[in-house]
Amino acid sequence: MLSLSAFILSLLLVTTGVYAGNRAWEPPIHYAKAAIAARDLSGVNNIYFNGTNVSSDYHAHQKRFFGISSPATTGSYPHLWPSGNIDACFEDRTHQHDGATKHTRDILYDNLITARQLWRQNGLDDGDGHFRFNILPEDDAGCERSQRSTHLLIMYAGENVRKMSTSVGVDQPRGSPENNGPDSDLGPTMILTDILDIGMGNVVANYAHEMGHAWGLHHEHQNPKWWSETVTGVERAKFFFDETNFICENLADFDAQMVPYANEPDYVRRGHRNEICRDRDKASRSKFAGGFNYIPIDDAGMIDDGQSEPDWLSIMLYPSNAGGKTVGGVKQNVITKLNGDLIGPVSKPSKRDVQGLKKMYGVKTSFFGKILGDKSNPLKNIFDKIRKKDPDSGCSS
Ligand SMILES: [Zn+2]
Description:
Helix content is 29%, strand content 8%.
């Protein structure tokens, strides 16, 4: 799930070690403000950030889905991939893996291809020239350092390293190829682990989640319209997440955040807690990765699909215990439904995940999705009733 996006969390993980036990799902953010937050998180200087933001006027005319909306042609960051086609290159290096020395490609390729297949099986076809995930040979000219801003660099986190992080869409380079900075500063990056006890608890599903970020999707649970006024400051008649069912204290890295405040009065501790558990920018500045990946994103520059309820089956939605601390051998739940029901891990992209990406990229959906899903259509009520009977539907709860 940052403007450098995502990669920033990885820097954080590398540089602090505090998060070693944390689920480190990426911190993707995609717009300018988030970009700033991401830089704060990593401590990286903002020198390459030019303050470009995405016009809200522009977005007002877009169809809605929770992801980035800036087309590849606008020049502003972050933006979508051209027609959703991603050129990807494996980092050209070796790692220790299962007792052998292996190239990045040899560790990640099969599961990544399977993850792309998973999207295809669930409706994200690439037959019409969209949504291609092209993995180039390491010696391809497109994989050269000078081309970093136009390809996705896929890195292995390292054996037993709990780290997963992907740029959301194409983010702004934080450096120039002529300088000595790391390749990961120069363009979109995807860092993958094959540790099982992370995210969905399924390597292929986790890679499919990361692919969703790469194409421009945010976490479903970070859409501010699902959250109460307590967290967003925006009054809502109906909400799905609040501090009654988002238990910030259960995040694996929460306790470490409070250590410096151990001897402060209660009200000071409470104040700090509320800042890092409600304000994503403050969580970022405090390097509180858990909060950063849960707290709703400011929706400026965001689009979503105009639905009235979260997609509980989205592959971009965290299961209840993602990022939770382990107590007595049990990973604690961080988020549940408002009634206390658990959010389970999913193993595939949902219909709304696929439809959302198609909308973001302007790809026509099927007759059904296009016509019957349209709010203005009188058949919609009937359609919704049918959908509710479909256990595969994201609207079942
Ligand atoms: Zn994520």
